[in-house]
Amino acid sequence: MSGAKTDTLGPAERLAWLRLIRSENVGPVTFRGLLARFGDAGTTLEALPDLARRGGRRRPIRICPAEEAERELAALEALGARLLAAVEPDYPPALAALEHAPPVVSVLGRAELLRQRAVAVVGARNASANGRRLARDIAQGLGQAGFLVASGLARGIDTAAHRGALESGTAAVVAGGLDVIYPPENEALHGEIAGRGVLLSEMPPGTVPQARHFPRRNRLISGMSLGVLVVEAAPRSGSLITARLALDQGREVFAVPGSPLDPRARGCNDLLRQGAGLVESADDVVQALDGMIKPLEGPPKPSEFLAETAPAAPEIEVSSGRRAVEELLGPAPVAVDELVRQCHLSPAAVNTVLLELELAGRAERHPGNRFSSIAAGETGPS
């Protein structure tokens, strides 16, 4: 552990963090906003019912019971895994810098590897023999250059990348629980990574991966990495989603060129046409990232999660302005700055109303600090 002020969470606060992020309508960005306002997760949990009621919620908001969170922690312990908070040194530093970083992740294996600078290597599940060999060779070269190789433990390119980096260290980000092996044929690799690398998940143990879980997994893969390398990808593939997420997160995107006659090369060739870095070997990635290494090195600093409590808006301003904010929200996302301008309210008051509406399930948060109105109960956590 580092000597930073916020090295670890105590048992009670760790449990409260887990309960808060597992509560209804609370996602990573909302989590940050709540802690900035109330100072700690325990106080926030007590405030949730009233916030949701004020936002117009008719039925009680579901708060994760302490017993449920305790069972999750016990299940992780039984696996030999642990819950890692975003303010702790082993949390991937590049991921911690993102607004949408999950407050907690589950890790199994050598968690200290996550402190290293990382590069993601992803690609087609039905990869060619040449594509698999190249992915393995590049991953091995990246590992030898001091990078942690991250991927998604899928068939094809992911599997080849993990195997190439096993000796130096590899991180497998999975869509389900750490104890759910998917695909089943990677059971042996799953075990090898648990022993020699590190497995990471945002989901509780026992979660069977569903289609909706994979984009969330992909955002973690790109978010923890300085860059994403795509080796073979058909158009509209999951690997291209990871590349798009990487661009949104300010990461570098690389691609291996391929024959126009191979459909698996179309995605990579399209990325190259759009400005992705052309890669033929690990050296190409290392040289491109050389200038980005130092800013993201080392354990993460204590983040905004534990910032000083933000000043609350006066209740009279929030009450008088609530209707104005609600009326300005519609199906199309609108920026918070625009709401502040049109409502003639303080940013604190507008953010308070939006937080209440979000917890009530009546507003949805979008990238770029924008919000839209929705019918109650139709949104997921942000």
Secondary structure layout:
Blueprint: H1 11-21, H2 28-38, H3 41-54, H4 66-79, E1 82-85, H5 93-96, E2 104-109, E3 118-123, H6 129-144, E4 148-151, H7 157-164, E5 170-174, H8 187-196, E6 198-201, H9 213-223, E7 227-231, H10 238-248, E8 252-255, H11 266-273, E9 277-278, H12 282-289, H13 315-328, E10 334-335, H14 336-343, H15 347-359, E11 363-366, E12 370-373
Parallel strand pairs: 3-4, 3-7, 4-5, 5-6, 7-8, 8-9
Antiparallel strand pairs: 1-2, 2-6, 10-12, 11-12
Helix pairs in contact: 1-3, 1-4, 3-15, 6-7, 6-12, 9-10, 13-15
How much helical structure, as a percent, in the residues? 40-55%
CATH class of the domain at 106-296: Alpha Beta
- Corresponding CATH architecture of the domain at 106-296: 3-Layer(aba) Sandwich
Given helix and strand content, the structural type is: alpha/beta
Radius of gyration: 22 Å
* CATH T-level topology of the domain at 106-296: Rossmann fold
Helix and strand run: HHHHEHEEHEHEHEHEHEHEHHEHHEE
Spatial ordering of strands, largest sheet: 1-2-6-5-4-3-7-8-9
Beta-strand residue percentage: 5-15%
Principal-axes shape call: globular
First-to-last CA distance:
30 Å
Poorly predicted regions are 1-6, 294-303, 376-380
The number of helical segments is 15
Find the count of extended strands (DSSP E, 2+ residues): 12
Main beta-sheet strand count, sense and barrel state: 9 strands, mixed
Give the overall average pLDDT: 90
Structure, described:
The protein is of the alpha/beta class and 382 residues long. Among the domains are: 106-296, Rossmann fold; 310-373, Winged helix-like DNA-binding domain superfamily/Winged helix DNA-binding domain (Arc Repressor Mutant, subunit A). It has 15 helices and twelve strands. It has a nine-stranded mixed β-sheet with strand order 1-2-6-5-4-3-7-8-9, with helices on both faces. Strands 10-12-11 form a three-stranded antiparallel β-sheet. Helix 1 (11-21) packs parallel to helix 3 (41-54), helix 1 packs across helix 4 and helix 6 (129-144) crosses helix 12 (282-289). The longest helix is centred in the middle third of the chain and has 16 residues, at 129-144. The relative contact order is 0.14. The model is unreliable at 1-6, 294-303 and 376-380 (pLDDT under 50).
